[in-house]
Design goal:
The structure holds 2 protein chains of 2 kinds.
Chain A (H helix, E strand, L loop, with lengths): L3 E2 L6 E2 L5 E4 L5 E4 L2 H8 L11 H6 L24 H48 L6 H6 L14 H6 L5
Antiparallel strand pairs in A: 1-2, 3-4
Chain B lengths: L1 H11 L1 H6 L1 H10 L8 H6 L11 E4 L5 E9 L11 E9 L10 E8 L4 E2 L5 E4 L3 E5 L13 E2 L2 H4 L3 H6 L2 E2 L1
Parallel strand pairs in B: 1-7, 8-9
Antiparallel strand pairs in B: 1-2, 2-3, 3-4, 4-7, 5-6
Helix pairs in contact in B: 1-3
The chains are: A mainly alpha, B alpha+beta.
């Protein structure tokens, strides 16, 4: 049993799923589901179709180079069965996939963090500039609680009695 | 959605089998307006059915024939699939070959556009319909086979064809 990769979307094809298309030049195309198969028949290039792994890798959306990919590379040399080795490999597989998943997630978080920072600065700027649309500036001046908290002031009990109200 | 309905009707029913793909094609165009499939989608989602009477197949050995028209699919009322034997009439042949035009020959289907299920649950389909000419005993007439062949032939005991093949899919 061998877990193949879909030619179009690069997802794993489990046994019993998908269609294998053999072209006359003996090149075999495996598809995980009819969606990928139909896209192939429409002659779509997977590098241009947004939801495929090929597109995401090409456009830097997903991680491309990492040492965890080395473990999954196809090796054509047959290996003699070694019980200890097999046990070790079976124990290592979930660990490696966990590491790979966290690294991929970090890659995406890092890529999206720039946007998050930009959005926060823009929101802050909008709040400062357009707060007058929400409440009139004169009202804001009267009530201290309606102004934006510009700085945190640690207040001790002795001080609250002495500081006058803002007017 | 329309394509799924078509596949159910074409592979199961023997009524449609006799009429071939023509009726199915008409039905799909009629359904065009109801589903979101465009004309180009229907064009690319051709419904593939069995190799039956009238099917023209390519001959992929060096027996001399070029094209063969199926006149009978042995062992099935619906038609021949990948790995089955058919009786064909040679429609086009090379000038100096072992078979001539108009000969009635036996052939083994080595490539079929209709998908065939394998025992592990996967399906295989090829790009075209191709046949290798054999004699009544099942031995190939030619000495070479071109293109990929499926390993379904091993189960059907066409071992000689597998031996001659250049690539086994």
């Amino acid at each position: 049993m061998r877990l193949e990769k879909c030619w179009f979307c690069s997802s794993t094809i489990y046994p019993g799923h998908g269609i294998q298309f053999v072209r006359n030049d003996a090149k075999i195309f495996r598809f995980c589901r009819s969606k990928c198969h139909k896209n192939f028949k429409m002659k779509r290039n997977p590098r241009k179709v947004k939801w495929t792994k090929a597109y995401r890798r090409l456009h830097g959306k997903d991680m491309t180079q990492d040492s965890t990919f080395e473990f999954e590379r196809k090796r054509n040399r047959p290996q003699r069965y070694d019980r200890i080795n097999t046990e070790k490999v079976l124990q290592a597989i979930p660990k490696i996939s966990k590491v790979k998943a966290t690294r991929e997630k970090d890659h995406i978080t890092k890529r999206l963090s720039v946007g998050r920072v930009n959005r926060r600065t823009e929101d802050r700027r909008e709040l400062e500039q357009s707060i007058s649309l929400v409440k009139a500036p004169s009202v804001l001046k009267e009530d201290a609680t309606l102004t934006l908290p510009k700085q945190k002031v640690t207040v001790s009990y002795a001080q609250t009695e002495n500081t006058p109200m803002e007017e | 959605m329309a394509a799924r309905f078509l596949s159910k009707s074409s592979s199961g029913s023997s009524l449609l089998g006799a009429l071939g793909t023509s009726l199915v094609g008409v039905g799909s165009v009629a359904r065009q307006t109801t589903s979101k499939l465009t004309y180009s989608d229907i064009f690319f989602q051709q419904q593939r059915t069995f190799v039956q009477m009238g099917t023209k197949l390519k001959v992929v050995d060096n027996s001399g024939a070029k094209r063969v028209m199926c006149i009978q699919a042995l062992k099935s009322k619906k038609g021949a699939k990948l790995g089955d034997i058919i009786i064909g009439s040679v429609k086009e042949a090379q000038p100096r070959g072992k078979v001539k035009k108009g000969d009635v020959v036996y052939g083994v289907v080595v490539r079929a556009a209709m998908q065939r299920g394998r025992c592990d649950g996967s399906h295989v389909r090829f790009d075209d319909n191709a046949v290798v000419l054999v004699n009544k005993q099942g031995e190939p007439i030619g000495t070479r086979v071109f293109g990929p062949v499926p390993h379904e032939l091993r189960k059907k005991k066409h071992v000689k064809i597998l031996a001659l093949a250049e690539h086994i899919a």
